[in-house]
Write a structure and sequence with these properties.
With about 300 residues, the chain is an alpha/beta fold. It contains 11 helices and 10 strands. It has a domain of about 110 residues: ATPase, nucleotide binding domain (Nucleotidyltransferase, domain 5), CATH 3.30.420. β4, α2 and β5 form a beta-alpha-beta unit. The two termini are about 15 Å apart.
Length: about 300
């Protein structure tokens, strides 16, 4: 049942930034002040392709709604969802039911659209985002979204958390093929095997093939934690920075020089990632690392972009 919002209550905008590792939300009041925020489990539009995945998405929506509603019923929602391809009818209906609001007041888009607007106005610069996956994004002055990369962890997503985890496991197991037991002398391998549960191949196989991509991406934390003691870990992180620089250079080559910002939890794993990225960008190009805040931007966008009532 949809409940009408009290005329005396402020019109709240709910912003949602859903990624593979976690989903962040924020409530904004008119004027842009953030009244409340929180995190729930990660989710992806790609999960909508299976019955189990749809159940997981709906359960995460329910968790989110339970966190939001004590602070008020939102008037409008702007939700950025990783893997989003444009089909939002079922997602809108589920979230509307849980939040007690009109489905037409909920707008879904790519998580990168709101991440970009947290760093730049349209046409202003290029955002490289490295979370579980990676992508380079540019929204031009006409509002058209352009990408470099961001095509999924199976195909690429170089420099993202999943890629870092995959590179670490590949390095470890190739060395084991050549020198069984070599992992004992590697701080990275010991940390990785501790994280996945054991040094037998069965543990690594179950870890990388039996979980959602966001859970796999968290293994990048173990890689970063050993980068100061293990040259192999440091090399993987430097290569991650080079992969992210490639995305920025692709956009610069296509659309001309503009400031570049890098954001996302994977980019912040270790300073060597951003350092390696900066070294491969064109001389004189403005470059910065940002903390994100896409859920804040989305909450304010929800208030700035009213939807038609049903």
């Amino acid at each position: 049942m949809i409940q009408a919002q009290s005329s005396s209550a402020p019109e709240l905008g709910l912003g949602i930034d859903a990624g593979g590792t976690q989903t962040r939300w924020a409530l904004a009041a008119p004027g842009g002040a953030i009244l409340a925020e929180g995190t729930v489990a990660g989710l992806s539009a790609l999960q909508m392709g299976s019955a189990h995945g749809r159940e997981t998405v709906r359960a995460t929506f329910a968790e989110l709604a339970a966190s939001v509603l004590p602070h008020g019923v939102p008037k409008r929602v702007e939700a950025g969802l990783t893997g989003f391809g444009g089909d939002s009818e079922l997602l809108q209906r589920w979230l509307a039911e849980l939040l007690h609001m009109q489905a037409t007041s909920i707008h879904f888009c790519s998580d990168m659209e709101i991440a970009y607007r947290a760093s730049f106005a349209p046409g202003e610069g290029y955002l490289v985002y490295a979370g579980t996956g990676s992508i380079g994004a540019f929204i031009d002055a006409d509002g058209t979204f352009h990408r470099a990369g961001g095509r999924g962890v199976v195909l690429d997503d170089g420099g993202g958390g999943f890629w870092i985890a995959k590179e670490a496991l590949r390095h470890i197991w190739r060395l084991e093929d050549e020198q069984p037991g070599a992992w004992r002398a590697s701080k990275m391998a010991r940390a990785v095997f501790d994280y996945v549960g054991g040094d037998d191949w069965a543990y690594s196989r179950q870890f990388i093939y039996g979980q959602e991509r966001g859970a796999v991406g968290k293994l990048a934390l173990a890689v970063a934690a050993t980068a100061e003691q293990d040259p192999a870990a440091a090399t993987i992180l430097r290569n991650a920075g080079r992969e992210l620089a490639r995305l920025a250079r692709a956009l610069v080559n296509r659309f001309g020089p503009r400031p570049v910002a890098v954001s996302g939890r994977a980019a912040a794993l270790h300073p060597v990632i951003v350092t390696a990225m900066r070294e491969l960008l064109p001389d004189g190009l403005e470059f910065s690392q940002t903390s994100g805040g896409a859920h804040y931007a989305a909450a304010r966008m929800a208030l700035d972009q009213p939807r038609s009532p049903a």
